[in-house]
Amino acid sequence: MEKHIKSANEASEKIIEWGEAHDYTTCFERAERLKPCPIGSSGACCKVCHMGPCRLVGKNAEEEARGVCGATLPTVAARNLVRMIAAGTAAHSDHARDMVLTLLAVANGEAKDFKITDERKLNRVAEILGIEFGNGRNVNDVARDVALKLLEDFTRQKGELNYIKRAPQKTQERWRKWGVAPRGIDREVVEAMHRTNIGVDHDPDHLLTHGLRTALADGWGGCMISTDISDILFGTPTPVKAEASYGIFKEDEVNLIVHGHEPSLAEIIVDVVSDPELIEYAKSKGAKGINLGGMCCTANEVLMRHGIPTAGGFTNQELGIMTGLVDAIAVDVQCIMPAIAELSKKFHTKIITTSEKATMPDAIHVQYDEHRAREVAKEIVKIAIDNFPNRKKEGSHITDKFPVIAGFSHEYIEYMQGGRWRASFRPLNDAIIAGRIRGVVGLAGCDNPRVPSTGLHRFLAIELIKNDVLIVSTGCGSAACGTAGYLTPEMALEHAGPGLREVCEAIGIPPILHVGACVDNSRILTIATAMAHEGGLSDEIAGMPAVGIAPEWMSEKAIAIGCYFAASGVPVIFGGESPVGASEEVTRIMTEVWFERFMGALHFEPDPEKILELALNYIDKAREKLKLRKYEPGRFGTERVLMDMAARRELEKSAKPT
Ligand code: SF4
Ligand code: MSK
Description:
Layout: H1 10-21, H2 27-33, H3 38-41, E1 45-46, E2 54-55, H4 61-64, H5 73-107, H6 119-129, H7 139-155, H8 169-177, H9 185-195, H10 204-234, E3 240-244, E4 254-260, H11 263-272, H12 276-284, E5 290-295, H13 296-306, H14 317-321, E6 328-331, H15 339-346, E7 350-353, E8 364-365, H16 373-387, E9 402-406, H17 410-416, H18 426-434, E10 439-443, H19 455-466, E11 469-474, H20 475-482, H21 490-495, H22 498-507, E12 512-516, H23 521-534, E13 546-550, H24 556-568, E14 571-574, H25 584-598, E15 601-604, H26 608-625, H27 645-655
Parallel strand pairs: 4-5, 4-6, 6-7, 7-8, 10-11, 10-13, 11-12, 13-14, 14-15
Antiparallel strand pairs: 1-2, 3-9
Helix pairs in contact: 5-7, 5-9, 5-10, 5-24, 6-7, 6-10, 9-10, 10-23, 10-24, 11-13, 11-16, 19-26
């Protein structure tokens, strides 16, 4: 019988096999056992009132099926999608709110363990917001005004989000024309929940239009605010070298993992683990030192800024525990499987929850508070150290690890194309115009145990760069690439098409640029805007030879992201079955209607070959519409000839002196 692969990552696969042999349950086994409900998974189930749940199924369900209240299948499916967008937007944006409140506390001198690290970025944001800066103005006064101005974005009832004006003019015009320019973030989320309540908004197109408005509040609000404030407080990333995969855990050191999404506490932990007092304390417990690593998007935050190694993405969290080497995992919010608390009891790992919004049974809770961040961080590190002597022999110790280059903020991408004084996007635009680079893909989103996890990311990453497509990656997409060894400049030499390789070699970049955590998809919006302003391609985000792909998505946050890209003018392709696939009308709106209005779309396609084909097709059509040179594979650079052993021997023979 053919072996069923659960993860494309060999190291993960080894741990899964070890776990199965020892009767440990993980998401991989649960995903096999718990098949999705076909009615709910296609968007045909409504449970917004207690006359239901209503299942809108049967022959001609699209036209004939009705819920008890009379709701049609397109209404129900549209409502389901809008609720997913609202939940995703709420998650990113509540994270953003905490970042703004931290900035405010820093400006007011109340969060003494933090400071403004990137004043240049603070000034740039102040400029966008119309706040006075420079000329001797106190930096904390600027930061306070920035924080207060951004807080307005959460509660504004009328008008538009502050950052809407950052988008190209034509993109803004499309939003205003179609009524999707968002007002306040909280208002859009609340209105989405109101409209999807029983007996309110029933027109699928009208519902989905509000879904886009909510999603835009996420992209150009919550996500962009989070990215900016994290950069201001902790520094705008520049390239760093690090490592990825389970081999980052050290047998002779205390292994502490930060997991979740918020960077604030993790930043202080980065600092605290090199405190000589704590290192001495670790030594007193028999460890040689303290080793900090990350997981999911908190990992991406500290990887981007400090080169802290990552153990990988979402599906690695249980497997990390099963190495038996993790002394503690400090979690904050989002994408933390409740399963880790139960699993950790079978090993020695301590799970430490830190957010007042997120606790779980069987975990230790250490309340994070930005006013006493260092004290909290020390307490967490001490828990990990105290637990080191409890390490048991048991575990699947894996030593695989790969080098990673991360830290490609949009500011750095601009800088690397011309230096500090001539920073621009000209070289990238020119390379696209000439056809050296066929287009750009944002490869993002989660990894998922319902497919051989990380496998679709790997397949698409290789195929896209082979086709001269530059990749910007975020979130667990980056982790999937990093734990495969794909985030290095050597990837260009080994796998990229000749045109892309030439550009990567000239600028000195990898063909897959790690641009950050999932909130940092906002950096991709900024890059697309800069490309539009640079000229020579489209004068708006719409129409660029660019596509977004989330092949293994699972989170509602991913749906919000996909929708804000679609509304911004980027065709987006998600893997897996559509969560609204039961309704042809909703599918038509998300693809055809959104494309007519915004030149963006949201597709769901389970077949990775078809995802690739669709993405390249969008890119080539955009090139054609922009009247760019037709992309010809191998036109630039020299095609590499891949030689097998026999060919090599022949060559060696002929090279030998006779
Ligand atoms: Fe059923 Fe209508 Fe209630 Fe939904 S809102 S559960 S379709 S009765
Ligand atoms: S962590 S949302 S699994 S990308 Fe940002 Fe990864 Fe998806 Fe969570």
